[in-house]
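Slide 14.
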Amino acid sequence: MKSKHMQCIGCGSEIASHGTSDYRCVSCGMTFPSIDGIGIFLPKPMASLFGFLDEIESAQFAFEKTQAELGEYLDQNPASELSARIRKTLSGMECNLRLLKQQCAPIQNYLNGFSRQEDFLSWASVQTAYSYNHMLGYFYQDWHPTADFVSATSLFERVILEHCRDKASAVVLGAGACGLLHAISGHFGQAIGIDLSLPTLLTAKDLMAGNPLTVHIEKAAWNEAVISPPPKPPYNLTLLVANAMNVPLKNSTASVVLTQHAPEFNTVGLMGEIHRILAPDGLWINLSPGFIFPGDPGVLGGRNLGESLSYIHKRGFSLVDSRIHRFRMHDFESINRESGTVEKNIHFFAARKSTVLDITANSYKSNDPGIFWQAIPKMADEQMLSLIQRKTFTGVRIENRMELGIRDYLLPIGGTYYHIADALFSSIDGKRRLSEVYDNLLAQQITLSESEFIEIVGFLAMECGIINYHATDNRLDKPSRYLSTESPPVASRHE
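Slide 15: predicted structure.
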């Protein structure tokens, strides 16, 4: 993709090619790596690359743990009827682990010679709630493909053919296995796939380059599936790693934005970002379960289609098409007759960008740092946030696990990050100013610089929708979105 259409996720300035393939902001100096042609547009990109490699460590740990448990079972029950399935399970896990290591090799090669940088923000920015093994199921769904994927894709293509007035570029947010991206790419001059998982995008890129993919599907009893590449590699695709709430594209550059099973954590932030990058009269086409918006009672779950469309209209979109679509998730019956499937009625709609909104509405940091420190944060009730310390008794061992829960999603979280999150969320009571929240963290021996604190608060507010806050004097205006490590020092809250 031409860098002239891209902008820095930190300050919104121009992006230029840097070195052989990396990108660099011409204003704040942030550098964004390119891994096998995939740009990494995250707030702490180098630290996040190490975070992606943690996927290998997690998969290795899960395999060894399962191998030990099942091996112990077979030692005690050598003639068990389960022995064949146990061998297939371990073989499938091991094959997927080898595939993950193979696909992550470009990350390893890029990081040779770099020391690991680690902090709360870099950890949080790569959490997707889905493991690599889980995502491999979507490769089967998209590229086998399942009948439901073909049906859903036809909905997108029909709207594109009937209602798309400009076909310069399409953006798929949450591209995942990239089946939808590939299916619609022929209708546009440029097709851009954006996802938060670099290992998933590397695997999709390898497949679309013409290399068959052999996967073992966890939800299909680890049965093998060989996925064939498309007949001809696409010529117009660009893949980027970024959060859907902070896309590295300039205002009004996309003809169409497509979302499938859109991120649920910050729906309003997502809509604002889609509206920002859409060209005038551009289309947003979505296939997702019912949205939950700020202030909605969590116990009600997602809105029905009519309720969602009414809200979307208020955010600068006019309805073009809508319907309830029946979709079967994780339909693996062709390779395992006993695999379960989830059939849902989900929302399909197409909406046109119809009005000009204040595109700075989702920004969180003031040009006047004093205003930031005086703002009063509140937790977003609809996110149903929880921190969980889980102790599991298996009969042969006791396992301790810490998790961050956002609605129905559980993310494993290390002890250090758990205590940071616990101290931060416990300090936000709707009364304390951000300066008081920060002082409270310091009093609890949480070591964060002022710039790190601002970055974390901004990330949780803008990209996750976990917290909301407003300046007390209503002067919170357009900032740079992130403070890069190369930015000028942040003014102190005491100034």
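Speaker note: The domain at 45-353 is CATH 3.40.50.150 (Rossmann fold).
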